Amino acid sequence: MAQGHSGHRTPQRHQGHTARKRFGQNFLVDQDIIGQIVTAISPKPGEFIVEIGPGLGALTVPLLAACGKLHVVEIDRDLIARLHQTYAPEQVTVHEGDALEFDFSSLPAPLRVVGNLPYNISTPLLFHLADYADRVRDMTFMLQKEVVDRMVAKPGEEAYGRLSVMLQYRFAMASLFDVPGTAFNPPPKVTSAIVYMRPLPAEALGCKNPELMGKIVTAAFGQRRKTLRNTLRPWLELEDFDALGMNPQERGERLAVADFVHIADYIHARAGSSGDRDLGA
């Protein structure tokens, strides 16, 4: 597992490989932490597991030992060559390229996704993976702790925002434990954390127009200090807030996921009844 956060200036080598800053490479070396992560994943024989960013194999080795076969997604050509040299194709299937562009629907379901998500692409990659949630059993990732805190934050908390709402709409999530920088070589300047994500059943989602909801959430958190009356002006008038039973002077950071679903469904229903197809803003 290659950690995705770099705070170092000079290239450092581990197991003959130079950590590459552009890929955010810091390699997990603490065996106790590795053991905790594998225990959290609890891999079983026959399960279909894909590891994002296997790096030098810190997790690959114990995962493969537990499940017998593994798929990995890796972008670094040197590490790809090392993977091909180390493992037979029937053990590890290497998918070469950027996880941001990888079609996870090409893999059998139900899929278990694990690994490290580089900090510089963590948010777009999480949204990319959310598109495949209906094919996923669960996901266990190492991320910068700050990102994990945002993912699991509750309404009213400082870390609560767009990432919180959109991921909590689709997943049940839990921050499992922190990982100090000393667990890596080279050590990053930030603390990481392990997060567990399990897709919610389709019937639990409920929103009639998730794309519209995404636009509303983005607008609500685009200017955090502004009230809903201002941020949602393209969609809602004062009488609409009365119909919704919401205070127009409230801020987006105080709304629960269900509140955003309620707003989106209201706008969607109103547009449908009026024949207005323009739900964008």
UniProtKB/TrEMBL annotation:
UniProt keyword annotations, A-Z: Cytoplasm, Methyltransferase, RNA-binding, rRNA processing, S-adenosyl-L-methionine, Transferase
Primary location class: cytoplasm
Enzyme nomenclature, EC number: 2.1.1.182
Residues given in the record as S-adenosyl-L-methionine binding sites: 26, 28, 53, 74, 98, 116
Entry annotated with the keyword RNA-binding: yes
Cellular location(s): Cytoplasm
Group of enzyme by EC: transferase
Residue stretches making up the Ribosomal RNA adenine methylase transferase N-terminal domain: 33-201
Keyword S-adenosyl-L-methionine among UniProt keywords: yes
Known catalytic reactions: adenosine(1518)/adenosine(1519) in 16S rRNA + 4 S-adenosyl-L-methionine = N(6)-dimethyladenosine(1518)/N(6)-dimethyladenosine(1519) in 16S rRNA + 4 S-adenosyl-L-homocysteine + 4 H(+)
CDD domains: AdoMet_MTases
Family membership: Belongs to the class I-like SAM-binding methyltransferase superfamily. rRNA adenine N(6)-methyltransferase family. RsmA subfamily.
Function: Specifically dimethylates two adjacent adenosines (A1518 and A1519) in the loop of a conserved hairpin near the 3'-end of 16S rRNA in the 30S particle. May play a critical role in biogenesis of 30S subunits.
Protein name according to UniProt: Ribosomal RNA small subunit methyltransferase A
Gene coding for it: rsmA
